[in-house]
Specification:
There is one protein chain. The protein is built from 14 helices and 24 strands. The chain is an alpha+beta fold. Helices cover 28% and strands 24% of the residues. The chain folds into three domains: 160 residues, Periplasmic binding protein-like II (D-Maltodextrin-Binding Protein, domain 2), CATH 3.40.190; 117 residues, Dipeptide-binding Protein, domain 1 (Alpha-Beta Complex), CATH 3.90.76; 222 residues, Dipeptide-binding Protein, domain 3 (Roll), CATH 3.10.105.10.
């Protein structure tokens, strides 16, 4: 018996060793690769209305679905760089005014028809026609679009513009579907909720409640997609009334992903081990914009500079964003084109702030508040009624009062802020955010022509040198020369301090770790996190190396 046990024992060891080495050889000779299959479900705190590329700009749900269903001539990679999609080739005339784009031949709409230059021209004509009420119309008013042949389109601009190709990321509409629909019926067309596109996923079905609200929206992989069929075969979006309901659904495993979550709600995710939170760069700049025409103290250069040095941006990011953000020192961020990393930006230095005010003749009064020649360093800080910004304002109040300022925080509702403060420019200092682009065009935010409503120059900044640079930058196609112009512009902002730049929050995308291949690092808008979804996968297999 003892001998039999001895033999059996060592036989098992030998078999185990053999299996181990066979397994090791198999593992070393093969590799894991994505495999077609699986379903991804995502939740959004929004409701789709117009799954149409020329109408989708005001809704996250619409923009997300458009990203999967439609294709543009160009799209974005994981770093936010432009890549060709429907376009096979493109060229620009020497004067920078004529863009010629050649389409890929043989690309199919989801109904089997071919995508041609006529579809591109039709889409542009719809955009330019005010009867269709597209929010993007202003971007296309100075563009003539023409089909040269079946696969070639020209875009002729009145003035050269370095950022024009970004306009061509817009999804293209199928002419044969939409040309028979009159403008007055455009918003009501069934195709807005049952669209035909040329993207990686096609519409399959939707589920509604008794009130007509869409509860779920199901897409299937378009296996004839010109850039290769997606791995994940089915994508379903579920829609919820708010972020609380969205998080509850995720915790119940009703969805595998959440399109966006605020930092304070991250601890509410109970499935932490199976969850991955992607922190994605997005150029949303929050700052305090100074209106020197409404406050005598802010008209002094040393006051604006001192307030910038008195701002502990890192503390704000810790307390308001739970560390999920980056500090801002200028109108651009390190992940944006043109950021001048070699400039000496005003990092937090309370002693420096005190010295600037002392040297400028601002004396402390009995109440600790500084004044100069009868002008008290008192500022009303206007802020939207939004928890993150209201908390930021309270922190700024404490930080700035430590150097001798008196700060009054005025919290306003969204409508009150827009109608009674921003539009008439009736504020002394405004804590607000701006949506920039990775390939930044600061003209709209900083050129003096944009000082008044509906312009976006919230600091009422008026500097001739900056105006000249911002105008020239728009027409400069040479990246190296444009980089020099960006730098000079930032030097002017650094000298003038028209605003205290604060931070950019990270875009937080929550997805179950079973979903692989998500690689977005920097995006212009939240919908672009889905730009490379055809490369995402759930299923895998091993193949020989």
């Amino acid at each position: 018996m003892r001998d039999r046990i001895f033999v059996a024992f060592f036989s098992l060891i030998g078999a185990g060793a053999l299996l181990f080495w066979v397994g090791a050889l198999y593992m070393s000779a093969t590799q894991v690769v994505p495999k077609s299959g699986g379903e991804y479900t995502e939740g959004l705190a929004a409701q789709p209305r117009y799954i149409n590329p020329i109408l989708a700009q005001t809704s996250e749900a619409d923009a997300d679905l458009v990203q999967l269903i439609y294709s543009g001539l160009f799209g974005y990679d994981a770093d936010g760089h432009l890549v060709k999609r429907l376009a096979a080739e493109q060229s620009v005339s020497e004067d920078g005014k004529v863009y010629t784009v050649t389409l890929r031949p043989g690309v199919k709409w989801h109904d089997g028809e071919e995508v041609t230059a006529d579809d591109v021209v039709f889409t542009a004509q719809v955009l330019q026609d005010p009867a269709y009420k597209s929010p993007l119309r202003a971007n296309w008013l100075s563009v003539d679009v023409a089909a040269v042949d079946r696969y070639t389109v020209t875009f002729t601009l009145k003035k050269a513009y370095f950022g024009f190709l970004a306009n061509l990321t817009l999804g293209i509409l199928p002419k044969h579907i939409w040309e028979t629909i009159a403008p007055e019926n455009f918003l009501l067309a069934d195709y807005n909720l049952a669209p035909i596109g040329s993207g990686p996923y096609s519409f399959f079905d939707s589920e509604k409640d008794s009130s007509g609200n869409i509860l779920a929206y199901e897409l299937h992989a378009w296996n004839e997609y010109f850039d290769g069929a997606p791995y994940i075969q089915k994508v379903t979006f579920h829609f919820y009334p708010d972020e609380t309901a969205l998080i509850d659904a995720y915790n119940r495993k009703e969805v595998m992903g959440i399109n966006s979550v605020t930092p304070e709600n991250l601890p509410k995710l109970t499935e932490q081990k199976s969850t991955r939170v992607y922190e994605i760069n997005i150029p949303r700049i929050f700052a305090v914009f100074f209106n020197v025409t409404k406050n005598a103290a802010l008209a002094h250069d040393e006051v604006r500079a001192a307030l910038s040095y008195a701002t502990d941006r890192d503390a704000i990011i810790r307390e308001v964003l739970s560390g999920k953000g980056q500090p801002a020192y200028t109108a651009l961020f390190p992940f944006m084109t043109g950021y001048a990393s070699d400039l000496a930006f005003p990092h937090f230095d309370r002693d420096k702030a005190e010295a600037l005010l002392d040297d400028g003749g601002w004396k402390h009064g009995a109440d600790g508040v500084r004044a100069k020649d009868g002008t008290v360093l008192a500022i009303e800080l206007t802020v939207p009624d939004w928890p993150e910004l209201a908390k930021t304002a309270d922190i700024l109040k404490a930080q700035w009062e430590q150097v001798g300022a008196r700060i009054t925080v005025n919290v306003a509702s969204a409508n009150d802020l827009q109608q009674n403060a921003i539009r008439p420019r009736e504020y002394q200092a405004l804590l607000f955010g701006e949506a920039a682009m990775l390939e930044s065009d600061p003209y709209s935010f900083w050129h003096s022509s944009q000082k008044h409503d509906p312009g976006l120059n919230l600091a009422l900044f008026d500097n001739k040198d900056a105006d000249d640079i911002l105008t020239a930058l728009r027409e400069e196609l040479n990246p190296d020369k444009r980089r020099e112009q960006y730098r000079t512009f930032q030097e002017i902002l650094l000298k003038e301090n028209p605003a205290v730049f604060l931070y950019t929050p990270s875009y937080l995308y929550v997805v179950n770790s079973a979903v692989k291949g998500i690689d977005a690092k920097s995006i212009d808008a939240s919908a672009f996190r889905l730009s490379t979804i055809k490369n995402w996968y759930i299923k895998t297999e091993r193949i020989r190396k």
